[in-house]
Amino acid sequence: MRNLDITTLRSFIAVADTGGVTRAAGFLHLTQSAVSMQLKRLEELLDLVLLDRSGRTIALTESGEQVLAYARRMIALNDEMIGRLTDQSHEGVITLGVPHDIVYPAIPQVLKQFHSEFPRVRVQLESSYTRTLKESFAKGACDLIVTTEGGLDSGGETLCQKPLIWIGAPGGAAWRQRPLKLALGRFCTFRPKVIEALDQQNIKWDLIVETESDRTIEATVSADLAVHTMIDGTEPPHLERVQHHGALPSLPSQNINLYGASEKRNIVHDSLATMIRDMFQR
């Protein structure tokens, strides 16, 4: 197995960029003979002629152009890896706030990917209601927050729109009962829209569970004592979408928004934001 040397590739790139061994040697702070020897070893290793030395200046052959493209990518990857693993700016803690109901399935995948790329940075995950997260963000307690809301505030970006759906126990009948038994979060941002939709269709309802605990809501709904609403695609495996065939009102879509503190932006902050963005826009 033949292996390419990073230092040699740097010398090759320098020669290609400067158009000569002498100028490349000065740029690299090496002797001309050292650079020439590196180029010779590279050509021997690949068994290719990479440089056209027939003119007054050195030019790349067709093979040399191909090697140059690979060399640039290899150097960039090498420098990125070294930088991320050793640069002290890639250390510390970044605080991410996400509403309870959209943590799964996206956020665990984001955390795993981020840790693989920034192993020395710890993500402190805060899970709460959108209203609480926005208050924390305004106070500077969170670096990034994801929210679920009907609109978008200044400084944020909408990642996607998702419909709200009715959720119940598998094979359950709670959705058929009148008044309709509801289990909703106390500070849930789309709760007013749910109530409004029911009132517009003159469906009587009874809020039997009003809590800040997702577990309490899930337990109640799992027991087929009430129904709940969630963003499509975030329902847990032990609950299911209610197939009500129009017996319940359609619900409005919700924005999944991302807010980031502009004064804290750096490569770590931006990389985490990009991973979140990519995951929710799939």
In words, what does this structure look like?
This protein is of the alpha/beta class. The chain folds into two domains: 6-86, Arc Repressor Mutant, subunit A, CATH 1.10.10.10; 92-282, D-Maltodextrin-Binding Protein, domain 2 (3-Layer(aba) Sandwich), CATH 3.40.190.290. The chain contains nine helices and eleven strands. The protein has helices at 6-18, 21-28, 32-46, 62-86, 106-117, 130-138, 191-200, 214-222, 267-280, and strands spanning 51-52, 59-60, 92-99, 121-128, 144-149, 156-168, 180-185, 205-211, 228-231, 240-241, 253-260. The strands form three sheets. Strands 3, 4, 5, 6, 9, 10 and 11 form a seven-stranded mixed β-sheet that branches. A two-stranded antiparallel sheet has the order 1-2. A two-stranded parallel ribbon has the order 7-8. It is elongated.
